Amino acid sequence: MTVLPDEQVGGSETWTPVCRVEQVPRAGGVAALLDGDVQVAVFRTGDGELHGLSNVDPFSGAAVLSRGIVGDVGGVPAVASPIYKQNFDLRTGRCLDDDGVRIEAYPVRVTGDLVHVGVR
Amino acid sequence: MSRTLVVAGHGMVAHRLVEALRTDDVDGTWRVVVFGEESRPAYDRVALTSYVDTWDPGELGLPGAEYADDDRVDLVLGDPVVAIDREAKQVTTRSGRVQSYDALALATGSRPFVPPVEGKDLPGVFVYRTIEDLDDIRTAVDRARLRRGRPAAAVVGGGLLGLEAAKALRDMGLSPHVVEMAPRLMPLQVDDGGGALLHRLITDLDVTVHTGTSTSAIAQDGDRLQARLGNGTELDVDLLVFSAGVRPRDDLGREAGLELGERGGVLTDETCRTSDPDIFAVGECASVAGRVYGLVAPGYSMAEVAAATLLGRDASFPGADTSTKLKLMGVDVASFGDAHAATDGSLEVVFNDAVNGSYKKLVVSDDATTLLGGVLVGDAGEYNLLRPLVGSELPGEPAALIGPASGGDDAVGVEALPDDAQICSCNAVTKGAINQAIHDEGCDSVGAIKNCTRAGTSCGSCVPMLGKLLSACGVEQSTALCEHFTQSRAELFEIVRATRITTFSELIANHGTGAGCAVCKPAVASILATLGNGHVLGGEQATLQDTNDRFLANMQRNGTYSVVPRVPAGEITPERLIVLGEVAKEFGLYTKITGGQRVDLFGATVEQLPQIWRRLVDAGFESGHAYGKALRTVKSCVGTTWCRYGQQDSVGLAVELELRYRGLRSPHKLKAGVSGCQRECAEARSKDFGVIATEHGWNLYVGGNGGAVPRHADLLVSGAGTEELVRIIDRFVMFYVRTADRLQRTAAWLDELEGGLDHLRSVVVDDSLGICDELEAAMAEHVANYEDEWKGVLEDPDKLARFTSFVNAPGTPDPTIAFETEREQPVPVMLGVPEVANR
Hints:
The complex is a heterodimer. Helices cover about 5% and strands about 40% of the residues of chain A. Chain A is mainly beta.
């Protein structure tokens, strides 16, 4: 498990366990419902890295990003929205097809075999 | 004040004249009155023989030929001009109508030439020029068939038109005789060597050829006719068709005192003006500068010249290229330039391969440096490159261009062609114009060139040349699937098939780079599914699928799904219909009837999907694959079961086809249709494959499309029995699945296929590549291994577990999904505005 630099900043997150690692398919994602109806999409890349992004696709408003296809765009790990197919950087939430758009990225860590998502 | 143009005649050239004038006459200076002799507007007479395929006159219709939206054009049908009064500047029609004109255009075309033979007016003797002529021939064939089974027929004339008539008779199931006065078939186009091969190839097609002899008399013999030939042969036939060339219909001009050409036709100058400056003549009735043309392309160019002249512009008829390339009963014949070596001192280079049925001749200048013309019979593959080279310096040894190692189109590079060489002869587009489109308009694909220049949009034979011109201009046409695979989809298909790789990871590790993406993953998933790798959500396959395939339902704008159970051919019992209603009510779904004759249930959440399927599967439904790049529906009309006009059981066939191909993953969705008669209520010709019943069997059409770029499907085979039909569809579908690009419908695939429809037919009907057994076996395997995908999920707890909105709260639906009621049904309401609005 890798904790990415972005996610270490601050350090005042509330960590919520959401599932076991093997429940997140390799090169796939699942959605978790956190307090306050916050929806986080948790992804596992083909290499086994875990990432968390908002589950809401900003282009359509539908909570579906966890159901997108996980792969890479020019080497950047990415998920493609299942609605209109824009790619988002799994590490930062930056939209790779539209410079001005970025979605919330959530830190993810593993304790034992449990996946935790951090919310500030 | 506007002036009046009267057009006498409404054939293809007359239509082009009206069209050209109305398009360019932006100020509306002309009003047009057209008097046609036939009862229908101008139609595609060049394609007359294809009328036999469908017996639907609408198939030959020319777009816009009724001028329905143009109040400046009056079209009067069935009332030809019979007299011209040049002094009063008015014409009189058969019905007695008198119409004055400021300008008059004669476009009366030709009449079939009937030699003065005794008995030429007997019943059972026909000519071959109009739709009515073919209807009469058909009636005679049907009548003779009732009398004595297989009727016999003879065609007088072994030229282009005679062989067309023979093809029509052959397509009606006859084995006609062809009688040609010249010592060879198609004497105008081919030489003796080419004629000899043509004779052999045509004879192999069950046509009896008599050359070097005339028809001396026709006599009635009971119900039949006896034709006596000059060489003593007697033919007992049920009908006889004269199709021995045409003569210009110049009577109107002759009677009005206009000058005529030496060989007939109303004489005109190069602006198509006759000896009366207010009267023009265009098409086959005209003798432009003393020469009559019997082809449509020169006629079109006369029409444009006359229209421009009428609008006060300078235009003159440039002369015409009478090169011909055609396929007669499957035999290629091409003739171009000085085919008969009439030029002084010209030399001939001949390559005659009697074994493989191919004859090629080039005519070159006395110093062997310039191409003058040529003849190709049996295989006209080199035509596209040779014809534009006429008049230019040869790029190499003449023999190298047509010899056995010449290798078709590659013999001469496109680089060798001069800029004014015509690449697309249908639309008169030169190499220079195409290069300009590539350099100045930025066209970077064959499709872009087609849109920009119209090259390749008619017969399509020059499409491969367009690709070569792109390459020659340095435009790289990448066929790479995406950044992860340099291969095209078709190449990947062959790799997967040959290596028996069963997972994406193995494929990308060995043949690609990176982690994959939303382009290559679903494409590879589709390939794996076509080749039979178990359930589409099995193992690693699940994460390759687009969301629709991953949840076996169609994602809608609010993240809910719609569910479409299969209703084969749209036939459904009341009990099942009630189940659909009950399920929709129970789960609060919006219902809508689809265009594919089934019912779509909208608004299901992820966790509802398996519950809905359970109810549907229990009632005998299965997945309709509305979510997949797979067979969708086979639409049908009710056919003979109910319809008074039905010719065959269209519903029965549609059910059989839908059950046969259901679940087959393909490069894009596949839609099909079966119509029980020519009325075509199932709209089968707008489908990827469509079947239309006739009294002789099924006609199969392929490559149709509705949507944004509609395409009428092309006839692949006609009069097939059910078994043969299914075999050809098996091959067609499998060939498409293997060779098409990702997300390329059959319409675009067929348009881009090198060799087009003829090539497709040679592969899937004549088995020219020897792969038909393999294609059929692959389809048989698909049919044998088909299983319902919904049932597959219901029976597997691991797969079922994925049908939940939240991994940490199974059973809790997505709280952002909400509905309101519109016209008594639930419709989505989005909570809050998307962060990125209106993009």
